[in-house]
Write a structure and sequence with these properties.
Helices cover 41% and strands 21% of the residues. By secondary structure, it is α/β, with parallel strands linked by helices. It has one domain: Glutaredoxin, CATH 3.40.30. A seven-stranded mixed β-sheet has the order 2-1-5-4-3-6-7. Helix 4 links the parallel strand 3 and strand 4. The chain is globular, with a radius of gyration of 18 Å. It is found in: Cell envelope.
Length: 165
């Protein structure tokens, strides 16, 4: 019996050590993905979006106006904005049409920086995330490192010790 427990423990330990760690930096491909800015309609590489916010904490929300889960999480995201006014809220939309995205941001009164992921689910950024469902949340620290990766609930970000000062 003890031998079986030892084998189970060893196998479990081996499996845990083989698990993949969350990345702390964006891939070159993800940084090169091009998004459309909401107000200017300018095409902007993701690396430039990050550079614009250098030295700030950033909460990234990958969402779409047609996504029920995204809309259900929106009150929690807005609460996070109220509680963390120093943080940048960066919304990356997977809407199918620019018009739907733009009107939803206005209708839902979503404050923050907004970009349209024109390459969609097949783009470099989505592939970097391993995106299969939305919403997705990431937290970037002041040094530009990913400290919370690929969460489906904003509450996971809010509970992270890295959010508070």
């Amino acid at each position: 019996m003890i031998k079986k427990i030892g084998v189970i423990f060893a196998v479990s330990l081996a499996l845990l050590s083989c698990s993949t760690q969350s990345p702390t930096e964006f891939s070159k491909e993800a940084l090169a993905d091009v998004f459309v800015a909401i107000n200017t309609k300018e095409e902007v590489p993701f690396k430039d979006v990050l550079a614009k916010n250098k030295g700030k904490k950033i909460l990234i929300d990958v969402w779409a106006s047609w996504c029920t889960d995204c809309l259900e999480n929106l009150p929690a995201v807005k609460k996070a904005q109220e509680e963390n006014p120093e943080m940048v809220f960066l919304y990356l939309s997977l809407d199918r049409k620019l018009e739907d995205w733009h009107s939803s941001v206005e209708r839902l009164n979503i404050k923050g920086q907004h970009y349209f992921m024109q390459s969609g689910w097949e783009g470099s950024f989505a592939k970097f995330l391993g995106l299969s469902w939305i919403p997705r949340y990431l937290l970037i620290d002041e040094q530009g490192k990913i400290v919370v990766f690929n969460q489906t609930k904003v509450s996971a970000i809010l509970m992270a010790k890295n959010v508070k000062k």
